[in-house]
C-alpha cells in the first residue's frame, strides 16, 4: 500500500505531537510532585500549648488575641527555624492534658517538677523567675511557719506543690485565674499572696511592692522551660537549636514590651525602670549563654555577659571552673565514666555556695579543647546526646529537683563546641550520691571542697537556716 508524501508528513507530525504531549505530561507530573514535596518539607509546624491567663507571659486579651513574653519568644523561635507555631491556649490542666494525649507537640513554658519529669522532658530555660510572698502592711510574722494568714496564689502546679511540701501548715487560697488574683490585690482584699516575677539577677532589695503590701520572702526560683512528651528527642532538639539562634537584639526588643502587673497594679516608675533592667540583664545574662563576667554583690552572684574568651583567659575562680571533658580521659586516651562524677561534684559545690558557671571542653590552662572526644563516647554522638547524658548524670547523682537551678547550653567557641553550665544557688543543701555514699561539697579557693559531717552541719546552719529564721 502506497502512502503519499502529504500523508507521511501528517502522520509524522501527529506522532511528534503525541510525544510532546507525553513529555509535557511528565513535566507536569514532575512539577506537581515537586510542589507536594516542597509543601511537605517547608510547611512543618508544631502545635504549642500555652496558658490563656498568665500575664505578662501569655494571655488572651478582651478581643481574644494571644500575647505575652513567651508568645513573642516563640514567634522569634519560629522565625529562626522556619518551623511554624500554632498556639493552642488553655488552662494549665488543658495544656498538660493536650500534651499527654498528643493533641499538641509542646507546652510553651512550664516549671520543672519531679512529678512532671516522670512523663515529660524539659528544654533549656526561656525565662528565670522567682516566686515572691507579699503580706499586708502591719503584719510582722517571725517566720513562715508562724504565718497565721491565708496565702493566696494562682493555680499553676508548682507553687501549690512547693507550699504544701515546704510549709504544710499554711492556709492556702487558690485562684483559678491570674486576673482574679490581680483584682483582689488591687482592692487590697488579700492578707498575703504569691506572684511570679522575673528572677532577680540584680540586687532588688528596694523593689516597690503593690500598694498596701510588703515583700516578706522569696519562696523559690524556677525556670520557665518548653515541655515535650518523654523521649521526644526530635522536637526537643528542634527547640534547642532554635533557641540558640535567637539574637540578643531581638530578645531585648521583646523584653522592653513586657513588665509584671502592667495596667493591673500601680507600681512606681522607678520600679518599672528597675524591672526592665532586670529583664534585659536576665535575657542577656542568663538566657543567652556565651560571654560572662562574674561579680559578687552583697553576697549574691550577679552575672553580666561581656566576653567569655576574656574570662577564660583570667583563669578559674570561686565562680568559674573548667573541665576538659565529661567522660573522655585525655591521659588514657579513652572513655572514662568516672570523670562524670567530677563534673557532678563541681555542680553540687556551686549549688551549695553562691552559684557559678562550669565550662566543659576547656582545660585547666584555658585551652579550648571542644567536645568531639566526648561525642565519640555517646550512642547519640552530637550535641543532643551530650546534653541528655548530662541530664542523666544530674538525675542520678544530684537529684531531678536540682534541674530548676541549672541551665545548660552548647556553644561554639574557636570553631569548637563547649558546654556552658550555669548554676544558681540552691535554696536547700544538695548532697552528691555515689552508690550508698553521700558527700557534701562547697566552693572555696577556686575549687570544689568536701566537708566532713560536723563541718557540713555547721555550714548548712550558717548558709541556709540563719538566712530564713
Description:
This protein has helices at 5-42, 69-81, 92-100, 114-117, 158-166, 178-186, 233-245, 248-257, 269-287, 308-314, 339-351, 372-376, 383-397, 453-468; strands at 45-51, 53-54, 58-60, 66-67, 84-90, 106-111, 120-122, 127-136, 150-154, 171-175, 192-198, 213-229, 293-297, 300-304, 320-323, 328-329, 334-335, 356-360, 406-413, 416-423, 432-434, 437-444, 447-451. Helix 2 packs across helix 7 (233-245), helix 2 packs antiparallel against helix 8 (248-257) and helix 8 (248-257) runs antiparallel to helix 9. With 469 residues, it is of the alpha+beta class. The termini are far apart. Strands 1, 5, 6, 7, 8, 9, 10, 11 and 12 form a nine-stranded mixed β-sheet that branches. It has a four-stranded mixed β-sheet with strand order 15-18-20-19. It contains 14 helices and 23 strands. Among the domains are: 1-39; 127-224, Periplasmic binding protein-like II (D-Maltodextrin-Binding Protein, domain 2, 3-Layer(aba) Sandwich); 314-469, Schlafen, AAA domain (Methyltransferase, Cobalt-precorrin-4 Transmethylase, Domain 2). Mean pLDDT is 76; it is low at 36-42, 200-207 and 260-306.
